[in-house]
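Researcher: Re-running this chain for the archive, since the previous output was lost when a drive failed. Same request as before.
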Amino acid sequence: MGQIIDGKALAAEIDLQTKAEVMQLKERGIVPHLAVVLVGDDPASHIYVRNKKRRAEKLGIQSTVCQFPSSVTEATLLKEIDRLNRDTSVHAILVQMPLPPQIDEFKVTLAIDPRKDADGFHPVNMGRLLQNKTDCTPVACTPRGIMQMLHKYNINPEGKKAVVIGRSMIVGKPMAALLLNANATVTVAHSHTKNLSELTKQADILVVATGIAHFIKADQVKDGAVVIDVGMNRDQNGKLTGDVDFAEVSPKASFITPVPKGVGPMTITMLMRQTTDLTKWSI
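Model: Regenerated structure tokens:
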């Protein structure tokens, strides 16, 4: 059985560090402030935003939700982002995705001040990540959290073969860049990849972000691999499950993240960490 990477415990540890830094900033009269823009009535988006607000308040971070109906125009939304950019009390801005079809998500991302980019998706920040210039640069929260997990468990990517399944801007692409920056040899696989199993069986570090429950089985994993499961799916009984068949794969892995209590808790934790960092960098 591989060692379980306890994301929930690590998230709690990092939250304590963040809370201490927030208190130090408050002693200087500075209150970290995260503004979240929420559009429409998507139930999942509302749950995510509510959880973010609760965590922020728990850590002493000011959280403002700017809510709009699904009929909002792109011009109105861009105007709101401009207002938040100019508001000196706001240190971090996040636009909850997905957005309705009349709004260009890239335009919205581009409108956010890179110095207030809580998600790390702005092209300026993605470019800095690719150039390995990540000092004072926000990075996508889930990949940043995964790198924290590897560090905590003394898993050094240097010289390792890493395979990332998924090429989204949220996980796959920034994850690959972070692993490259850590001197891993990285392969990015996706829905058009042929002979996927031949790649995954070579991976020393396997990061799976497909959105397909139990997509990776034991015969696709190298003995002793580090397996990071980013998936969050619901089975027929409504139980949360990952993209990796945990029961099958865990006996072969050296380290593995469970679902739940693996990568999931780290994402909001790193958003709070990033909000605090953006606050410090703005001083």
